[in-house]
Specification:
By secondary structure, the protein is α+β, with helices and mostly antiparallel strands. It has one domain (3-42, 49-161). Helix content is 61%, strand content 13%. It has helices at 3-32, 68-87, 94-116, 140-169, and strands at residues 38-39, 49-56, 121-130, 133-134. The longest helix is centred in the first third of the chain and has 30 residues, at 3-32.
């Protein structure tokens, strides 16, 4: 098996796990909690964390609501682009492939929702920051994309620092 194919398979496996977790959690919310209903899965954290059933036409954390068609297009391009990029990565680190898989799986999870639910995604993780101040409700796909992007930025930053150190010592 070539390095390119191995990289792509690794990214697809990570993306598949993310997609499975995302879609299974959303299915549980859809079948267990009425729209705009909430449950406290951990009683001790009730004042801080709840699972709620909401929908969102925006992107991660409720930003840019109402742009469903453009988000379908962008998500489709992102999933394909990440796949092509992963295939071209022969010597990429496992962490790089993991980051790409997180982003691909998250993008695919929300893309599936938009196609299934008239441009909307199912959001359900809700954290209260202060009295009556909530962090925007999100889902597993949003978390995966965010973690993947942060990991990728960190990896690129480390790579840049190493390159600068090598150039500086020459």
């Amino acid at each position: 098996m070539t390095g390119s194919l191995r990289s792509l398979i690794t990214v697809l496996l990570v993306a598949g796990v993310v997609l499975l977790l995302d879609q299974a959690s959303k299915q549980w919310v859809l079948s267990s909690i009425p729209l705009y209903g909430a449950v406290a899965p951990i009683a001790a954290l009730d004042s801080f964390f709840n699972v709620v059933h909401t929908t969102n036409t925006g992107i991660a954390f409720g930003l840019f609501r109402g742009g469903s068609l453009i988000f379908i297009i962008v998500s489709s391009i992102a999933v394909i682009g990440i796949g092509v990029y992963a295939y071209k990565q022969q010597g990429a680190s496992g962490w790089m492939l993991f980051a790409l898989g997180l982003m691909m799986g998250g993008a695919a999870g929300n893309l599936i929702d938009r196609l299934r639910y008239s441009g909307q995604v199912v959001d359900f993780l809700q954290f209260r920051l202060f009295d009556h101040v909530y962090f925007p409700t999100f889902n597993v796909a949003d978390s995966a994309v965010t973690c993947g992007v942060l990991l990728l930025v960190w990896l690129l930053y480390r790579q840049e620092r190493r390159s600068a150190a090598v150039i500086g010592s020459a």
